[in-house]
């Protein structure tokens, strides 16, 4: 007799979603099947420890923890029933609680950015036109009737019209009682014909980043943002950085298509949610502008990204115009999707858009733009010319590879202050709830505050001799307690570890050395930089003063520093509503000279010098040095060696 295999029922709390799965399914896969949001940064490889769940009922009906899993969980967590969802397989009915720190909360949007007032002049225009009714005397075809009317009334000559549109014309014209709305792209081609008068005309500006996808629904008449939505990039389960994703696509067949489909699904989710919220029909979205790094750009188009990772990192394509239906994006099927031009394998359309948004290419002033993300792009120059580079800063400032790092979501500690005498910590939390982790702006604050108060020295070493219970010494390394477990929302102290500091130090050094090389190449010093823009991952919550204390950027007066949030999105919005702005983006891509850091002989020296806080040579940071000295921390400059005195 064949034994019947019965599925097990798994209930996920607090949402109460349930799913039926077979024995051997991991809790992570069950959660995905149930549509439950669960952090899984390493993609289920038992490395990140972000998929913690608590088994409320049925702990005896799951697999035993492996050593790998035990290494990622604290003892009191194991006692409290914590398990890693990706490492635990199901063997019976279960009730599982997803703790707050593991929930994939909706991300906070950076919508402010740098929005100039520009005149709205989109590529798409709507024309409502009445057609002469067909008679025996006027026997023109429906297609000719429409083209003639558009020429007679609006002067539109030589418009093209695709088969996919004219095949429905007879029905559309009669349904509208001989009045139609023609949607025309760039006065060249008809991309939609709708019955009667339909005034709604929207576009979508999209930022497809390695960690998140953000979309902005825009009214193409006024240029007004109607709504915004951001979701984690669903590809993240296949790696948190660009190289891992590219490597993934090189494996067995179908992987590139899988990543492409995930991007398309994410975009469609954003469109669907925005349309529902605002009350817009997806059919009435006629254009989309897309910014993203070169790898995301290629993967979205289903183009092999392999050669982006191989020297000389040549992209397969630059700016492209693609029909929405070709990518299966659920907007008007004949809508145009414009992908920004790229500068190189590691400098993508997002950087082009950010440069365009700052208008640094139009100005006499020398400006520097730092667009901080998993890959940080830096541009330096003015209207005479711009050079740019890409720094492998990694995702540390976005909270990845940091023990208690999370993105800027509800529950993230956003800003931190340390008392220089008692070492007590004050912090603010997004959403004013109990904290569950540290986001990028808090990490910058922490580094600056630890440096200022002597908790950490200029080499990034925690001062383990300090007389405070907040300094913890363990076999695994030292750490500093930011939030005690009885005051936060997780059953552990939230700390910054020595290892976290190393990760941040490397990220900071990558960014600062990139800036140094560009300054060197243009023969520009700190005084020459009249404007310094900081864009990207942190949004507007970064404290520019603290960023300067740790040497994230060259020491320029604070009044010259402008935090511009997601400048790439600003560029995408501008190019959506203005033909001139799109032209500007194309020109910038032509004009920028890319500097490959790995081929610069002085790069390694700059990198090593940038590993210190704020920099190996304190004479390059006179204001920061004076400020630190006032706090009892004296920087002694001798080229590389630093010494911290005063504590
Ligand atoms: S440890 Fe489970 S997803 Fe990373």
UniProtKB/TrEMBL annotation:
InterPro entries: 2Fe-2S_ferredoxin-like_sf, 2Fe-2S_ferredoxin-type, ATPase_NBD, Beta-grasp_dom_sf, Corrinoid_activation_enz, Raco-like_middle, Raco-like_middle_sf, RACo_C
PROSITE patterns: 2FE2S_FER_2
Any one GO molecular-function label of the UniProt entry: methyltransferase activity
Family matches, as PANTHER family: IRON-SULFUR CLUSTER PROTEIN, IRON-SULFUR CLUSTER-BINDING PROTEIN-RELATED
Gene Ontology BP annotations: methylation
Stored Pfam families: Fer2 (PF00111), RACo_C_ter (PF14574), RACo_linker (PF17650), Raco_middle (PF17651)
Protein name: Methyltransferase corrionid activation protein
């Amino acid at each position: 007799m064949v034994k019947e295999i019965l599925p097990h029922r798994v209930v996920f709390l607090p949402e109460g979603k349930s799913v039926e799965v077979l024995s051997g399914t991991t809790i992570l896969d069950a959660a995905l099947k149930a549509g439950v949001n669960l952090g899984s940064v390493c993609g289920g490889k038992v490395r990140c420890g972000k998929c913690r769940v608590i088994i409320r009922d049925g702990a005896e009906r799951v697999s035993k923890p492996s050593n790998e899993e035990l290494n990622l969980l604290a003892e009191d967590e194991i006692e409290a029933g914590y398990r890693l969802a990706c490492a635990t397989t199901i063997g019976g009915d279960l009730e599982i609680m997803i703790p707050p720190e593991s929930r994939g909360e909706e991300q906070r949007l950076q919508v402010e950015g740098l929005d100039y007032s520009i005149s709205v002049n989109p590529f798409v225009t709507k024309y409502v036109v009445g057609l002469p009714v067909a008679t025996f005397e006027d026997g023109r075809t429906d297609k000719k009737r429409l083209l003639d009317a558009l020429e007679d009334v609006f002067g539109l000559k030589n418009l093209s019209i695709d088969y996919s549109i004219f095949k429905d014309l007879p029905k559309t014209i009669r349904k509208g009682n001989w009045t139609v709305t023609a949607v025309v792209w760039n006065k060249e081609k008809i991309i939609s014909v709708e019955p009667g008068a339909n005034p709604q005309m929207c576009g979508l500006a999209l930022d497809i980043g390695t960690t998140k996808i953000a979309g902005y629904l825009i009214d193409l008449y006024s240029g007004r943002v109607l709504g915004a939505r951001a979701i984690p990039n669903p590809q993240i389960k296949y790696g948190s950085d660009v190289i891992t994703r590219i490597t993934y696509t090189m494996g067995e067949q179908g992987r590139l298509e899988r990543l492409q489909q995930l991007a398309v699904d994410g975009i469609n989710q954003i469109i669907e949610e925005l349309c529902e919220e605002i009350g817009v029909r997806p059919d009435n979205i006629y254009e989309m502008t897309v910014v993203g790094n070169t790898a995301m750009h290629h993967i979205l188009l289903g183009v092999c990204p392999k050669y982006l990772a191989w020297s000389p990192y040549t992209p397969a394509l630059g700016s492209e115009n693609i029909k929405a239906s070709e990518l299966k994006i659920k907007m008007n099927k004949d809508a145009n999707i414009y992908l920004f031009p790229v500068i190189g394998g590691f400098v993508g359309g997002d950087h082009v858009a950010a440069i365009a948004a700052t208008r640094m290419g139009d100005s006499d002033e020398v400006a520097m733009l730092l667009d901080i993300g998993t890959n940080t792009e830096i541009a330096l120059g003015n209207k005479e010319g711009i050079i740019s580079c890409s720094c492998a800063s990694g995702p540390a400032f976005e909270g990845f590879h940091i023990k208690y790092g999370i993105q800027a979501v509800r529950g993230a500690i956003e800003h931190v202050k340390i008392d220089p005498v008692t070492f007590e910590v004050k912090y603010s939390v997004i959403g004013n709830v109990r904290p569950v982790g540290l986001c990028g702006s808090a990490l910058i604050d922490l580094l600056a505050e630890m440096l200022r108060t002597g908790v950490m020295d200029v080499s990034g070493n925690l001062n383990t001799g300090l007389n405070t219970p907040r300094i913890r010494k363990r076999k695994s390394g030292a750490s500093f307690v930011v939030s005690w477990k009885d005051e936060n929302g997780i059953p552990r102290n939230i700390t910054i570890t020595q290892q976290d500091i190393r990760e941040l130090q490397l990220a900071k050094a990558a960014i600062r050395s990139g800036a140094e090389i560009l300054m060197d190449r243009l023969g520009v010093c700190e005084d020459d930089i009249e404007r310094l823009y900081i864009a990207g991952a942190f949004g507007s919550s970064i404290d520019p003063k603290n960023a300067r204390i740790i040497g994230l950027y060259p020491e320029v007066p604070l009044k010259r520093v402008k935090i511009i949030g997601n400048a790439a999105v600003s560029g995408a919005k501008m190019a959506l509503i203005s033909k001139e702005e799109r032209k500007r983006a194309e020109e910038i891509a032509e004009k920028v000279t890319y500097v490959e850091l790995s081929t610069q002989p002085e790069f390694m020296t700059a990198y090593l010098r940038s590993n210190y806080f704020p920099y190996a040579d304190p004479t390059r940071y006179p204001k920061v040095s004076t400020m630190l000295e006032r706090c009892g921390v004296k920087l002694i400059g001798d080229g590389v060696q630093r010494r911290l005195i005063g504590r």
